């Protein structure tokens, strides 16, 4: 990785988006199935963090390649 940061190409943006959406779906299922409130809260916090990452990725793809994700 260069000192200027991470700059994915278009196909990498699509791959990252797909992988993160899949992970989000898995976390949502785990949260819904959990009977332990503490564990459910951990899943929900991860989902919230992940949604922030997805939003950042969406903005970066739009700025870098005028790519619309989602």
How do the strands and helices of this protein lay out in sequence?
Elements: H1 10-33, H2 37-65
Helix pairs in contact: 1-2
H and E string = HH
Largest sheet: none
Q: What number of structural domains do the residues give?
A: 1
Rough shape?
A: elongated
Number of helices: 2
What level of helicity do the residues show? Answer: over 70%
- What proportion of the residues form beta strands (DSSP E)? under 5%
What gap, in angstroms, lies between the N and C termini?
26 Å
What's the multimeric state? Answer: single chain
Averaging pLDDT over every residue, what do you get? 94
Cα-atom radius of gyration? 15 Å
Protein name: DUF465 domain-containing protein
Organism: Rhodanobacter sp. IGA1.0
Description:
The protein is built from two helices and no strands. The chain has 70 residues and is mainly alpha-helical. The chain has one domain. α1 (10-33) runs antiparallel to α2 (37-65).
Question: Which terms summarize this structure?
Answer:
single chain; 70 residues; mainly alpha; 0% strand
